[in-house]
């Protein structure tokens, strides 16, 4: 399917080079925790071929930065306010199809891996191993190679073979993008009226989506929706 063309952003100042070598990879880093951003930035900026040139506190800000800057790679936390990393990845894949994307996550979860690929990411890295694997993941992304952090390949292959043997398909997305937006806002404590104002829809429409969520996911109330949102990485506990 052809993606709509989007004008390229105005170029920033010339990218610095690493010790006389080629231009460094220009990275956008999005995470709602300043300490995490600072630690990750130290790891990346210490490499001669990598440089963080922009930071964002949430997915919406990450999209805005990508529209305004010339970037090579976006590293997105999976659970952020306003727009999650997966939601931002989908939008970035649409407006900047040449931008490589990595998902940074607290969660080691098979579903996240497949969701990240569907959203346009070329891999994801748990924060617990970021100091060890993130640099390699960045370089793999820039070579257009998918990155699966060490220790996950065996589990993913085993699960895939188990599913194939049982005649089951790979996991599909359980809910729609709109339902995901509403689930995130419900879990953040917003009322139906507030959600309607944020998404520019009626409170009744919000209630209908919430009822569909409860039915699809086999849940009973807001508390269980919130627990589910934490488990799938839409919000952090």
**Largest sheet, spatial ordering of strands:** 2-1-3-4-5-6
Characterize the largest beta sheet: strand count, sense, and whether it forms a barrel.
6 strands, parallel
Shape, principal axes of CA atoms: globular
Please state the second-level CATH architecture of the largest domain.
3-Layer(aba) Sandwich
Structural class, from helix and strand content? alpha/beta
So, the CATH homologous superfamily of the largest domain?
Response regulator
User: What sequence of helices (H) and strands (E) makes up the elements?
Assistant: EHEHEHEHEHEHHHHH
Number of H/I helices: 10
- Give the total of domains: 2
Mean pLDDT: 81
* Rg (CA only): 19 Å
Helix content: 40-55%
Proportion of strand residues: 5-15%
Q: Distance between termini?
A: 37 Å
Give the class-level CATH name of the largest domain.
Alpha Beta
Number of strands: 6
CATH topology type of the largest domain: Rossmann fold
Low-confidence sequence ranges: 10-19
Topology readout:
Blueprint lengths: L24 E6 L3 H12 L4 E7 L2 H10 L4 E5 L7 H11 L4 E6 L4 H10 L3 E4 L3 H13 L4 E2 L4 H13 L11 H11 L4 H8 L3 H15 L4 H10 L6
Parallel strand pairs: 1-2, 1-3, 3-4, 4-5, 5-6
